[in-house]
Design a protein that fits this description.
With 202 residues, the chain is an alpha+beta fold. The chain folds into 2 domains: 100 residues, no CATH class; 90 residues, no CATH class. It is built from 5 helices and 5 strands.
Length: 202
């Protein structure tokens, strides 16, 4: 789904009339329209690298500028121009948050899969690698602290770490979560992750 959304931006790069034809006014409008769409696509892609807050603000601001540029080519009405710019900015913010939620869901799935195979007290390593560099890759360890329930509803309480380096020194952060068995796989069962880890985004 994420790659499909980025492919749409890639398609914008081919959006340009190659000849004027019998309607030069229409071709000129389409050309300006496509330039604005390219700017919007570039702002979204260029904003992928960096920390969460900069990505969120940078991408939405860039999209708002590109949206306003597009609106100015379509209408001279200042109110309409502002409305289009704000609308594009809000849509871009929503898209960035969607990608972040997809990344967090993938990381949760990796941790749950690693912990599902463990018995109480056993430790395993986990690692999540993101195909889009919006957030850094993460790795750590996970252990099962206790079995919450068994039978029809099989759940475990886990403790996992996020291992990194800060100023060439190892840094470990620890979190507690719950996982439950969903058919053949283990699924994340904690409603809200730690705020210090992922902010308000789940």
């Amino acid at each position: 789904m994420i790659l499909r959304r980025l492919n749409i931006l890639y398609m914008f790069s081919f959006c340009a009339p190659r000849r004027v034809g019998p309607h030069p006014g229409r071709a000129g409008f389409l050309r300006r329209h496509c330039i604005a769409l390219k700017l919007l696509g570039m702002s979204c892609v260029m904003g992928l690298a960096g920390c969460q807050s900069l990505v969120l603000e940078g991408s939405s601001a860039g999209a708002g500028i590109a949206g306003a540029a597009l609106a100015q080519k379509v209408t001279d009405n200042a109110a309409v121009t502002t409305g289009i710019g704000v609308g594009v900015q809000a849509a871009t913010r929503s898209a960035v948050q969607y990608v972040q939620r997809e990344m967090h869901g993938y990381t949760q799935e990796v941790i749950a899969t690693a912990a599902g195979k463990l018995k109480e007290g056993e430790v395993a390593n986990w690692k999540s690698i993101h195909s889009i560099p919006m957030e850094p890759n993460e790795q750590g360890r996970v252990t099962v602290s206790r079995a919450i329930s068994q039978g029809l509803l099989e759940c475990k309480e886990i403790v996992y770490s996020v291992d990194s380096e800060e100023n060439s020194m190892p840094r470990n952060e620890f979190y507690v979560a719950s996982i439950c068995k969903d058919g053949p796989r283990w699924a994340w069962a904690t409603a809200e992750p730690a705020v210090s880890r992922w902010g308000a985004l789940q």
